[in-house]
Amino acid sequence: MLVDSARYFIPDSTLSRIREEAPYLSRCSDNKTAVNIRPREYAIRYPYMQINRSNMVSWLIFDLDHNNPWIWQDKDLPSPNIVVTNRENGHSHLFYAIPPVCTSENARSKPIRYMKAVYEAMASKLGADPSYSGPVAKTPGHPWWITSELHNTVFELGELADYLDLEIKPLWSKGPDYEGNSHSRHCLLFEDLRFYAYSIVTREKREGSFFSFVRLLEAKAFEFNNFKNRGFEQNLTVAQVKATVKSVSRWTWDRYTGSSRCNRGVMKLDKSLSVAERQKLSALRTHERRIQATKQKILSAYRYLSRNSIPITFTALSERSGVTRQTISKYKDFIESLSKNEANKTSEGVSVTHNRDSVKYGTHQITALCNVYLFSSELTGLISIVSVHKNKKPPD
């Protein structure tokens, strides 16, 4: 089955953002392995493709293993940009567009930690697979799936957070669990290393860097790797130790805060408000933000058509702005107000074309040039009078 790839080149559409934000060379395939690597213009033709880049997240994608793709409505969450549903079993992927968040090793940890907290909270409410991490997903628009494009709003993370109650479980609140992990060298090293990481990460963020943090953890990990002395047959290999260091360092650097609470959201809503009240206020803000974005698109399209003397119709506005004609019709009053403003600007313009019908108003019109001339004449006369009186001799 062939995909209608032309839909990916419609300006300002959700599918165009999928194409633009995908890696230039994307993984893709006819199955979830996505072993092929193709330019993104070709990858969109496959039912599975890599959506996010390896070091950048532009889409929060939720893998629903149940057959209720509209669960976000039941949970009072904002509508996703795209819903991609399997025709056979009803399982879906929900796509939420967000401003790109860099996830490379040189990236700031707070945005990454915040994004993960938002994702985990939303995944819990949506009943999504918590182990799904992408980057391969069902390709939106492919004929294998049922694709619903709902809107093209890009959600700020704080905007999504206002719908949620972000709680982070303080996994560092207790000491190492030696009893529960006494059978495993990997688990014992993980327990020892993570608590050492908690003790130095704040200092390294303030005075060092992520790379110095990793070096310290690596040195400590090899020190902890003394399992022969603990009754095991042998120590862990170098590769196994480094793998544990990599896991602990990235997680701790990104997520350890010393607190069990995360940022409350972009609206900074009162914590005393119930979740339902916060969701209602957030929904109103999202709706208003979407209206303003649509108006801005219509305004830009209107000005373009007017500037190029193109007849302003709903169809022309729709084609230029990328907003559907049905949505354009809902903004009829706004468009009429734009027309009135343009008419007022024209009537108040400096250059006016006179004809016989406008002559009768001539007696009431004095141009700015006439005013300057009259004022200059009066000023000249006043100067002459003053000069005469100044030169006139006083009487004897």
UniProtKB/TrEMBL annotation:
InterPro entries in alphabetical order? Plasmid_replicase_bac, PriCT_1
Q: Does the keyword Nucleotide-binding apply?
A: no
Q: Which Gene3D superfamilies match?
A: 1.10.340.50
Transferase: present as a keyword of the record?
no
Pfam families the UniProt entry points to: PriCT_1, Replicase
* Organism per entry: Pleionea litopenaei
Tell me where in this chain the Primase C-terminal domain is found.
Answer: 181-254
Query: What's the protein called, per UniProt?
Result: Replication initiation protein
- Key words of the record: Plasmid
